[in-house]
Amino acid sequence: MNRKSSVLRQISPATNGQGVEATFEDGHVSFFPTEAFINRTTAQTQENRAGFAPVKTWSAGVSNHPPTVNYVDVKTGPGMADLMRLIREYGFAFIDQMPATPEASEDLLRSIGPIRDTHYGAFYDFTSDLSSKDTAYTAEALEPHTDNTYFTEPAGLQALHMLSHTGGSGGESSLVDGFAAAEQLYRQDPKAYEILSTTGVHAHASGNDGVNIQPSQAIPTLVHDKTLGVLQQVRWNNADRGGVATPFEDLKDWYDAAAQFDGILSDLKNQYWFQLQPGKMLRKIIPLCHAYDIGIADMRKVFDNWRVLHGRAAFTGKRRMCGGYSE
């Protein structure tokens, strides 16, 4: 940052048909071509931030064509670019035909980017034994949610790979497009959308000894780019939610809005259900910036934790899962 005393206060601009020529008080002359201003307009900035692929919202019908790439292609061919494009477009992708081992899963995750170390560790390999006091470590059903709402900056990417499921059944996974749900809420009740976009919500993680995590401030459920005004992040986890930062007289309005949003997320028409299998990874991710204007050896998933909510049905038996967070 420049010191106040070093900031030049007198600038004499002049146009010459090619751009703007600025003469500073010390006699220095700088030239800024017209293209430099065009590339910094709000519309162009939004286009640049949107990335190389448009967002494609979806509902339960995505089950007819779930975005999928082949493990070998990701590791040795053009599949990595395809994976990034599909995650950008849909918010999630499956990586097919990969080895059903934690080593292969961790190697693949690290090939995409650094693994984020949290109170769960870095790369995790777990069963439903409550080794961590978290609902993910149980066999209970989980409603659609995003992870890390108790962090000021939730992890952008999450990968999950079911390595085995023995002695039982159930545990189907679900995904919901949070951007599509938010758009539906806006069409249904713009005031409810505004409330969830402007009212901060506290969150916390405190189940394990020595762990008590809260974000630095109350943050709205629907987070928007402050410059462009477009939806950038959905933060929704009933299990981790704390108090709502709003006056008591406005509290009912927030809960009414939240109930509407929860109803949309719970609508089966908006939920994509599938069964994870060893060898097929699911991944959901947020790229550096994204925004939205209003057989056995077969499955691993990757998904965008700022956009796509995930859940599961209850199950019996023993499941072994692995995965991790990344940015």
From TrEMBL:
A single Gene Ontology CC term: mitochondrion
Bias kind Polar residues: ranges: 1-18
Ranges for region Disordered: 1-20
Pathway where it operates: Amine and polyamine biosynthesis; carnitine biosynthesis
Name of the protein described by the UniProt record: TauD/TfdA-like domain-containing protein
UniProt similarity note: Belongs to the gamma-BBH/TMLD family.
Domain of life, source organism: Eukaryota
UniProt keyword terms in alphabetical order: Carnitine biosynthesis, Dioxygenase, Iron, Metal-binding, Oxidoreductase
InterPro entries the UniProt entry points to: AlphaKG_dependent_hydroxylases (IPR050411), TauD-like_sf (IPR042098), TauD/TfdA-like (IPR003819)
Record Pfam families: TauD
GO biological process, one term: carnitine biosynthetic process
Location of the TauD/TfdA-like domain: 69-281
